[in-house]
Design goal:
Blueprint: H1 4-10, E1 13-14, H2 19-25, H3 36-42, H4 44-57, E2 61-63, H5 77-92, E3 98-103, H6 106-110, H7 124-139, E4 145-151, H8 154-167, E5 171-175, H9 186-195, E6 200-206, H10 213-217, E7 225-229, E8 235-237, E9 242-244, H11 251-259, E10 262-265, H12 273-284
Parallel strand pairs: 1-10, 2-3, 3-4, 4-5, 5-6, 6-7, 7-10
Antiparallel strand pairs: 8-9
Helix pairs in contact: 3-4, 4-12, 7-8, 8-9, 11-12
């Protein structure tokens, strides 16, 4: 099995882009609380085809569609177990170099907006218990790493790091820098905690505005592989109910992220295979 950690030592590795964005562009309805997990259940061929588009665009790493899969949600627990394994199998079959099993925050499963605030009203111990089962299932599913992503607050980082220390599998931890749950020096503390956790080989940010990436990467401890996969440069206008601004990943900025230590670089919401193709070409010097 190829080693993602070893690959980072050779050159920056290109992540895929917004899976949900692409699935919608392909004509799929993602308005349910399950988001892309509903398609994984009902139309896995669509998820596989979307993954393959990102591979064709130059992505080295495919992130699975398990972000919103968790226990105690709208899907029966037995189905969650099956879908977690399926998410890895579907991504693996798409032909990418690496597969990272997505682990979203507790708020993503609640589908109440708390994934952007971290305001759950739960303790670190309760978050550990909630994450434990799916972490073990994803660790056993055969992915190259766990992608702990879009984490909105320090308490959830503490819970995840405690569980990962016991699990001992390769993982990265990526924070949502735009979350209102991050205060003061919490980001720096979270990065330090992640970097000190056994098995965690990279830490950084995702699902944030591109212009916030560079300043946030400055808090990643020296010598630790950084992560950067922000949203597109667009902004949602609630009045006109439309997106405004420049779409895509700013290539010049991405080069500065690499210079600042990012070794895993890609896109999150609203980023497309075309964006990843441009990014991959720039990073590899094609």
């Amino acid at each position: 099995m190829p080693d993602l950690r070893a690959a980072l030592a050779e050159r920056p590795v290109v992540l895929d882009g917004g899976l949900g964005t692409l699935l919608e562009a392909r004509g799929n309805d993602l308005t349910s609380d399950l988001w892309s997990a509903r398609l994984l259940r009902d139309h896995p061929d669509e998820v596989s085809a979307a993954h393959a588009e990102f591979v064709a665009a130059g992505a080295d790493v495919l992130i699975t569609s398990s972000y919103q899969l968790g226990f105690g949600a709208a899907v029966p627990d037995d189905d969650v177990e099956e879908l977690i394994g399926r998410s890895v199998r579907v991504a693996s079959a798409a032909g990418g170099r690496f597969v990272a099993a997505s682990v979203g925050p507790y708020g993503a499963v609640r589908a109440d907006g708390s994934e952007y605030t971290g305001d759950y009203g739960t303790s670190v111990a309760e978050l550990r218990a909630w994450h434990r089962r799916r972490l073990h299932l994803l660790a056993d599913a055969g992915a190259d790493a766990l992608a702990i992503e879009t984490i909105p607050a320090l308490a959830e980082v503490e819970a995840l790091c405690a569980e990962l220390a016991d699990l001992g599998v390769p993982a990265w931890i990526s924070l949502s820098a735009s979350s209102t749950g991050w205060r003061g020096d919490d980001l720096a503390e979270a990065f330090a905690l992640a970097a000190a956790t056994p098995g965690v080989f990279a830490t950084g940010v995702n699902c944030c505005a591109p212009e916030t990436v560079l300043s946030t990467l400055a808090h990643v401890p020296s010598g630790v592989a950084g992560i950067a996969y922000p949203n597109s440069g667009e902004r949602w206008d609630a009045v006109t109910r439309s997106w405004a601004g420049d779409a895509g990943i700013p290539t010049d900025a991405a080069q500065s992220w690499v210079e600042a230590g990012a070794r895993l670089v890609g896109g999150c919401c609203r980023t497309t295979p075309a964006d990843i193709a441009v990014l991959a070409s720039a990073i590899r010097g094609d």
